[in-house]
Design a protein that fits this description.
The structure is a homodimer.
Chain A lengths: L4 H8 L3 H9 L7 E2 L5 E2 L2 H16 L4 H12 L5 H12 L4 H10 L6 H22 L5 H35 L5
Antiparallel strand pairs in A: 1-2
Chain A binds a DNA duplex through helix 2.
Chain lengths: 178, 178
DNA sequence: GGCTAATCGATAGTGTTACTATCGATCAAG
DNA sequence: CTTGATCGATAGTAACACTATCGATTAGCC
C-alpha cells in the first residue's frame, strides 16, 4: 500500500515536515520516486517511524544516537551481539563506577551495599531477555528485537521499579512511624 | 568555612555564573549577606550543588523538575513517603502500560511475557531499598536518601543491567550460531 | 589613601536540539 | 484548466541550560 507523505504523516502521527526532517537526517529512507513531485512511502516507512519514535521518545535518545542505532540495525554485516552493543552504547549515560562515585560525594557511600543485589537481579533478567530475543530466527527481526529489548526493556524495568517502590514505601512509611 | 562565590565555584566544579543561575531559578539558597557585594556560602551550599548535579546530570532531570524535588526535600511538612513520591514523579517518563503499547505497535507484543519477571525483580529490590533508606533516623538525611535512592538507584540499576546484558549476549551470540 | 580585582544583581546573549514554516517549481486529478 | 498536493531547499522557531556583560560598589593589599 504505497502512500504519499501526508497519509504517512497521518498514520504515523508525526507531521509531514518531521518526516522530511527525518529523511534529511538519515533516520529514514526517502520514498520511491515516481515523478518530479511524486514519492511513495510504504509499510516499511511506517514501521521505521514507529521504531524511531520509540527510540526518541521512550528511549530518550538524541537524534544523532538514534541514527547510529538505526544504522546498526540496517547493516547486514553486523552480528546481533554487536547491534545490541550499539543500542546499549546509545542509552548508556553512566557507568556503575560513576554512580557510586557520586553517591560517595553525596555522603552515601553505602549505596555500594546494594550493588550486588542489583547485579544479581540484572543477571537474572538479562538471561531472560536474551532468550526472549532468540524467539525469532529472522535476522532482521532479531536485531530489531535487540534494540527494542534494550530500549523498551529499560523503560519497562524502571517503570516496574517505580511501581514497586511506591508499594514498598507505602507499607513501610505510612503504616508505622514517620 | 564561609567562602565567596568563586571558591564555591571551584570546589563544586560549576561556574560562578551557573551558581547565580541556580539561585535565580530557586534551586539553591542565596548566600548570607554581609555587605553590598559580599555574600558568603558554606558547606550546605556545596552539598546542595552536588545534589543538584546528581539530579540534573545522572538523573537527567530538567531544571524545572529538579526544582520540585528540591522543594520537597526542603519542606519539613512532607513525609518521607511523599518526598519519595515526588522524586519518582520527577523521573517518571513512562508507565508500564505505555511501554507495552509501544511494543505492541512495533509488532513485539510478547514483551508482555517478561513483565512478571521485571515486576518480581523490582519488588525484591524495592524492599531492599526501603530498608537501605531506613538506616538513618535523621529526617533530613532520610528524605535526601529517598531522592538519592530513587535517582541514583535508577542509574545504578540500568548500568548493572547493561553489564549483565553484555555478558549474556556474549555467551549466547558469540559462542554459538549467528 | 589609592588602586586593583572581586563581588553584587539584573539583563541580555549564546549554542544546541528538534523540529516547523515557507518557498517557488511542478504536476496529479477532477 | 484550475486547484491543491507535492517536491527539496532553506530559513525560522521554541525550549532549554547556561554564559557573558554591565555599572555600582567594596574588600583587600601596598
Amino acid at each position: 500500500m504505497p502512500v504519499r507523505i501526508n497519509e504517512l504523516a497521518e498514520r504515523s502521527g508525526v507531521s509531514a515536515a518531521t518526516i522530511k526532517y527525518y529523511v534529511r537526517e538519515g533516520l529514514l529512507r526517502g520514498g520511491d520516486r515516481a515523478g518530479y513531485n511524486q514519492v511513495s512511502y510504504d509499510e516499511s516507512h511506517l514501521h521505521r517511524i514507529r521504531l524511531l519514535r520509540a527510540l526518541l521518545g521512550l528511549g530518550g535518545l538524541p537524534v544523532a544516537a538514534a541514527k547510529e542505532v538505526i544504522a546498526a540495525v540496517d547493516d547486514p554485516e553486523r552480528t546481533v551481539h554487536s547491534t545490541l552493543g550499539e543500542a546499549q552504547r546509545a542509552v548508556s549515560k553512566t557507568s556503575v563506577e560513576q554512580v557510586l562515585a557520586v553517591a560517595d560525594e553525596l555522603g552515601h557511600p553505602d549505596l555500594l551495599d546494594m550493588l550486588e543485589a542489583y547485579r544479581a537481579a540484572a543477571r537474572q533478567l538479562a538471561t531472560l531477555e536474551v532468550n526472549w530475543l532468540g524467539r525469532t530466527d529472522d535476522r532482521d527481526t532479531l536485531t530489531e528485537r535487540a534494540v527494542i529489548g534494550t530500549i523498551l526493556g529499560d523503560a519497562l524495568l524502571t517503570a516496574a521499579r517505580r511501581e514497586a517502590q511506591k508499594q514498598a514505601s507505602a507499607t513501610r512509611f505510612t503504616t508505622r512511624n514517620r
